[in-house]
Amino acid sequence: MKRLPLFFFLLLISACGETAKKSNVAQNNSANNQNNTTNGSTTGTNNAIPATCGNGSVDGSERCDSGIPTGDGSCPNACPPQGACTLGTVTGTAASCSAQCEYAVVTSCADGDGCCPAACDYTSDDDCSATCNNGVVDAGETCDGNCPTSCDDSNACTADTLTGSANNCSAQCANVPVTACTSGDGCCPTGCTSAVDNDCGPTCGNTIVEQGETCDGNCPASCNDNVACTADSVSGSAAQCNLQCTNAPISACQSGDGCCPTGCTYAVDQDCACQPLACGAAGRQCGAPSNGCGGTLNCGMCQNGFTCSNFNCVATGGPLATGSACTAQSTCAGVIAPFCVSNPNFQDGYCSSQCQFDNDCASGSHCGQKDANGNGSCLKNCASNADCRAGYLCFDQDGDSNNSKECMPAGVGMGTIGASCSAVYTCGGGIDAMCLTGNDWPGGYCSEECSLLNLCANGNWCYPENILATSGYCVDACSTDGDCRPGYTCQQFNGLIGTTGTYKACL
Asked: What is the reported pLDDT for 35?
């Protein structure tokens, strides 16, 4: 046998070693592929699958839905061609409702793929035309002398791409539908919502409250907050996902609505707790008058020489002194022309007589309220309110030169500014009180005198007597007509001379 050269054995050993090395590399690559596959499977298992996946509707972050067999919203398993020079690839999976087509433009020169990229010609790619620029669109050409220069189809939901070139007669347009949810591109693809793409409007019914919606699947069935002192109203609708409740606080004093707003009393709002009046506060001296809350008072009987008339004690047995309650002129005493004041502000009447001087009046009274001619009326003298009967207070009402005090009608009632009234004594406010009446004040209007030096209490404005006035009457401030009692509206007016701005009150 012929002996083989030594270098042959060395080559054989080297070859066997290389074979073993390749085998080890292959095994390692196989193991790595298995690891990669396993890791990929694990990663896929951990990816969150939308809870709505498979329900037959594209919801939330889904790109498709495995419950839709074909057509819009179904998950693709292949991508339809979008021109010879674009390649479509399915990304995502149907199982996770994330499958979608993504396209890329072909740029490499390759024979037989039907595409002639811009950088190629017939010498490097047999898909390119050898007869380009003869003015005829020959086989293998997409254009010749009429090649497009722009592919904009004015549709925000297509990606417009010009492939090929006019130089090799392969220019053509690809208008690929946009599938990615991307804010700011002017397109809202199927399956996208405003939560992931601000080009989408809100989608009512997807159970996601998006911008422009107030609710979606969680709209309230009722706006009643079970609070008596709020006005409950609803705007919009659940069908349009814009239903909204408003529960505005009630501020108007109005009987029958179950609410007693702050500042209201039973006198103007019977939903408020009624505070029964005492005989003195009710202006009653005898009998069993109403306590203002549906009950009666026990004001007792009159002393000898007096009788109970209209719940007040009236003297009997002769003419009545100045300031006494009266019902007729004949019951009053006086030096000159006695009379009984029947003005409604004078509770139970007021005995008086004509005068020019104090000695024209009987003892215990003086001449006051004089007119320009010096004629006046006799008024009952007093030192304190205790000297006056119900409905009257002791003060210098006429401001005469001798500063005499007299018992005169005053605001001793419960009526607040703006409340209805029949006489001044039903209103509050003491000696500044008044009950405005007439066509401008239907039902009467409790008020007080006011001026730049004597402003109204909070919640009220001073309404001028005329356009040049520096004094006027306190009126009830308001914001809307709902703040005013029936017969009155919330009106704007200018304040007293010397003030700036405009005001609103119930007038």
From this structure: 38
